[in-house]
Design brief:
CATH class of the largest domain: Alpha Beta
Radius of gyration: 23 Å
Structural class: alpha+beta
Shape: elongated
Distance between the termini: 30 Å
Oligomer: single chain
Strand content: 15-25%
CATH superfamily of the largest domain: Histidine kinase-like ATPase, C-terminal domain
CATH architecture of the largest domain: 2-Layer Sandwich
Length: about 220
């Protein structure tokens, strides 16, 4: 257990550093040069405008398009850090995702979300971890479980945030543990929580998550 815990923590640290490296690369190789190009373009447009207003207008249009692309890239980076859907709160974000998955399945799978309204506001780290774990579980249900219903239950007791994601699918365990299952467990463990997945052949799959409030900070 000690070795497994050590390996789990090493994977968490490694994943965090890889994420930081990815963000740095995206900013350095993408957004940085784009903004530098826009700055140079504006300087050129200023010189051109004095002798050829029409040519400056065309250049400014190109720069406007470049700026729009840069904004989209920044939004993508921000979305990777914290899903914009969480601006509506955890339950609202999960319900939006549930509706999306139900729509994508063509009604073959109905995903529902229920909570006890026990917490108006959650720490950011807790919200993100819970959202990522629950959406991974719901997506796995759609892809692999051959289920017709998936229920997400969110409960708060002042000390723990508890999620329970159940489906009525085949309940057959995968032949090998995939990245998604490992990611769910590691996201919970990073906050001092627990994520368990129970496969019940013929009776569906249940994902249980317990995340302590005190381990999360906004």
């Amino acid at each position: 257990m000690t070795r497994e815990l050590r390996r789990s923590r090493e994977r968490i640290v490694s994943s965090r550093e890889e994420e930081r490296r990815r963000i740095r690369r995206d900013l350095h190789d993408g957004v940085g040069p784009a903004l530098a190009g826009i700055t140079l373009g504006l300087e050129t447009a200023g010189r051109v405008a004095r002798r050829d207003p029409g040519g400056a207008s065309s250049l400014l249009q190109e720069l406007r398009s470049d700026a729009a692309d840069c904004i989209d890239e920044v939004r993508r980076i921000v979305a990777d850090l914290r899903p914009p859907a969480l601006d509506a709160g955890l339950t609202g974000a999960l319900r939006h995702r549930a509706d999306l998955l139900t729509e994508r399945s063509g009604g073959r799978l109905v995903v529902t979300v229920a909570d006890d309204d026990g917490a108006a506001e959650l720490p950011s780290a807790l919200e993100v971890a819970a959202y990522r774990i629950a959406t991974e579980a719901m997506t796995n249900t759609l892809r692999h479980a051959h289920a017709t219903t998936c229920e997400v239950d969110v409960r708060y007791d002042g000390q723990l945030l508890v999620l329970r994601i159940t489906d009525d699918g085949s309940g057959e365990p995968p032949r090998s543990v995939g990245t998604g299952l490992i990611s769910m467990r590691e996201r919970a463990e990073e906050l001092g929580g627990v994520c368990t997945v129970t496969f019940r052949p013929g009776a569906g799959t249940e994902v249980g998550v317990s995340l302590p409030y005190h381990a999360s900070t906004s």
